[in-house]
Amino acid sequence: NFSFFVYSPVQKDEHILHYTDSSNMAEVDTGAPSEWKKYETYGVEVDPDQDDKAKEIRLCNFSRPHMRAFHCAWVAFFLAFFIWFAIAPLLSEIRTTLNLTNEEIWTSSIVGVAGTILMRFLLGPLCDKVGARRLFSLVLCFASIPTACTGFVNSAVGLSVLRLFIGTAGGTFVMCQYWTSRMFTKEVVGTA
Hints:
By secondary structure, this protein is mainly α. The protein has six helices and four strands. Strands 1-2 form a two-stranded antiparallel sheet. It has a two-stranded antiparallel sheet with strand order 3-4. The chain starts with a strand and ends in a 9-residue tail after the last helix. Residues 1-8 and 15-21 have low confidence and may be disordered.
């Protein structure tokens, strides 16, 4: 009967020395790093070969992390569209009140789309660094401010600048796609 020491990983570059008795040889720690998981069980079926991404979508399920992320993503994306298109039904009234031409209205619409395109280029790499959830919140909060300031517009230039900043809400498409693609397997991510 003999005893020996076994190293086991605790964190990335740390090891702890464990004393192991030879009478319990069935549980020898090989020192291989074990995979860390935040959740022991999931509310949906997951694929361990695809980083525990969900293999199914249960619409009436709000369990963490997959379905809660799904519901948060679509609700936030709905809010972004609400912000993005909030000014469109008011354009006829704005045109009359500010004596704008059709060209000025179209310019403001084009600038709003340009803001979205610019944000999509910026938000893609930022999702990799910061994460979709935080960016989603920041962009929605940022875009809500110019939406609330719509009543202060008094010129065509002001309308175009306002719609440029409101157009940033359209960039949330990137975060929505990123977030859902991190939660669901390649077989169901298109549905999500």
